[in-house]
Amino acid sequence: MTSTSEKILDSAQQLLGENGVEGVTMRAIGRLVGITPMAIYRHYPDRNALLDALYDRGFTQLEIELRKGLRARSPAGRVAAMMNRYVEFAIAAPHEFSVMFVHRVRATRRFPEDFDAGRSATFAMVAEQVAMILGVKPGAAAARDMTLTIWATFHGLVMLHRAGRFDAEGLRRLGRSSWRALLAGMSA
Q1: What is the reported pLDDT for 1?
Q2: Which of 152, 158, 83 lies closest to 122 in space, CA to CA?
Q3: The CATH number of the domain where 172 resides is what?
């Protein structure tokens, strides 16, 4: 049986997917769950706590997607596959992506301290493969910094796509060519 807290979070995610962050209101959630808006506060102290929970859920979903990229044969192939999954996630779930990467929530991880402490499973997965490409120990600053460079490149492309600079196929094409350039730079 689903708990009331889970029903509230499921409803918040439904509203997020349909209407964006602005559509996640206590009143709308209460209507979907069949409780009063005030009853939600017994489970989540405020709207920001709900957004934090959506942030965490989004990263759990992204981690599942990125793990599929680990099936590739080489570290470079795995990073390429994970970044492709990142792009596809951003295309398929734009509002969830916004909660995770655009809107400031209390749970937002900070660079470099949270990444060095291993608080980002998604970042750590990519960084481990980047360390192999670079031939350095996992956790090395060079791998961390290169991983951020890779992530920032793909994130920038996603944000340009979201701003209407190019369509989804253009985003995918630019992602592939950017990865080739980044990989060439790492191999030099």
Answers
A1: 56
A2: 83
A3: 1.10.357.10
- In this structure, the answer to whether residues 66 and 119 fall within a common structural domain is yes
The domain of 24 spans: 1-44
139 Ramachandran zone, left/alpha/beta (phi>0; psi -120 to 50): left
| Integer Cα distance of 121 and 109 in angstroms | 11
Q: Examine the domain organization and report whether 12 and 28 are in the same domain.
A: yes
Regarding whether 86 and 116 lie in a shared domain, the answer is: yes
Per-residue confidence band for 111, with pLDDT thresholds at 50, 70 and 90: confident
Instruction: Indicate whether 138 and 156 sit together in one domain.
Output: yes
Q: Which two tokens stand for residue 172?
A: 């995918």
Residue carrying the six token digits 């937002």 = 108
Do 164 and 94 share a structural domain?
yes
pLDDT in tens, 137-177: 988 999 999 999 999 999 999 999 999 999 999 999 999 99
pTM (predicted TM-score): 0.90
User: Do the Cβ atoms of 177 and 164 come closer than 8 Å?
Assistant: no
> Who's near 69: CB < 8 A, 6+ residues apart?
78, 79, 80, 81, 82, 83, 84, 85
Please work out, in degrees rounded to the nearest 5, the angle formed at the alpha carbon of residue 83 by the alpha carbons of 170 and 187: 100
